[in-house]
Amino acid sequence: MSKRTYELIYVLKPDAPETEVADMHKQVADIVERLGGAIDKTDTWGRRKLAYEIGHHKEGFYVLEVITGSGELMKEIDRRLKVTEGLLRHLIVRVDESTIKAERMRTKRIDESRRRRVARGLPPDRQPGEGPQGEDSDDSGDLMFDGAETEV
């Protein structure tokens, strides 16, 4: 079985205590571990307004989990979450491989840019007001000459 990356987002009732959120994460983590997957990242978004009312609730407690595993693993998680009390909604989506590659390349470019800036004695991140046309910019190679000359 091939392992792929999936995003699982679930919405708990807004009045869910921290222990209930932790129990839900533990339940997902146990299933993932038992079926040979891995949780790469957990991002707790907290209490947010819902786009529409669900079960007389206008808000929900959001949690995002990035999981690497098989399709069977995700089917089992989906099956378990469908019957879980206190859960308003959940959604599982497969992350496109090209998106993952693009994110890796973006991170690599940012790290390289920071390294070059530090080597030149500049702060690693751009300062407010320092745009691409600034004299300290390290994006000067981003503007390409199209070969056409204009007379002023």
List the main descriptive attributes of the protein structure presented here.
4-stranded antiparallel sheet, 34% helix, Alpha-Beta Plaits, 152 residues, alpha+beta, 3 helices
Concise account of the structure shown:
With 152 residues, the protein is an alpha+beta fold. The protein has helices at 18-34, 71-82, 97-119; strands at residues 4-12, 38-54, 57-69, 87-94. It has a 4-stranded antiparallel β-sheet, covered by helices on one side.
Average residue pLDDT = 84
**Proportion in helices:** 25-40%
The CATH topology of the domain at 4-98:
Alpha-Beta Plaits
Distance between the termini: 64 Å
Secondary structure category: alpha+beta
In N-to-C order, the SSE pattern is EHEEHEH
CATH architecture of the domain at 4-98: 2-Layer Sandwich
Q: In percent terms, what proportion of residues is strand?
A: 25-35%
The assembly state of the depicted protein chains is single chain
Instruction: Give the overall shape, derived from the CA principal axes.
Output: extended
The tally of beta strands, per DSSP, is 4
CATH class of the domain at 4-98: Alpha Beta
What is the radius of gyration? 23 Å
Number of helices: 3
Strand order of the largest sheet: 2-3-1-4
**CATH homologous superfamily designation of the domain at 4-98:** Ribosomal protein S6/Translation elongation factor EF1B
Low-pLDDT residue spans? 134-138
